[in-house]
Design a protein that fits this description.
single chain, transmembrane, membrane, mainly alpha, 42 residues, rod-shaped, transmembrane helix
Amino acid sequence: MPWRFETAPGPLFFVEWKNLLLTLLYVSINIVVTIFKRGGAK
């Protein structure tokens, strides 16, 4: 195993990864929406 984030990666490990990916997706969408709003306001 190349990664050592947790001593015993189990279901919690995958749940945390899913939450992390969802959070990153949500943040990136918010950034894109903000950029589009700024571009449209010009």
